[in-house]
């Protein structure tokens, strides 16, 4: 499956839907979606990872990038995180900087 990062907005929330594998080759596309989400001025960023099948270290760095790019008062929620992806996020210790809802 090809990687897809799709941004939608509404009601003060920017949602980025991720599908496929988030790795070094695809992280720049996710960075672009994060920049676009920040530009909306949304008070909440939702990252829908329900179709994300794999996350590499570059994907983890992209999550850190997201946390650094948004304002401190913006909530970032990871929703629909699959067990394999959640395991990697937890092993990296990134589960404390985000509101995470597993699938």
Automatic annotation (TrEMBL):
It holds the Pfam family STAS_2. Residues 3-103 form the STAS domain. Belongs to the anti-sigma-factor antagonist family. NCBIfam families: ant_ant_sig. This is Anti-sigma factor antagonist. It comes from Sphaerisporangium rhizosphaerae.
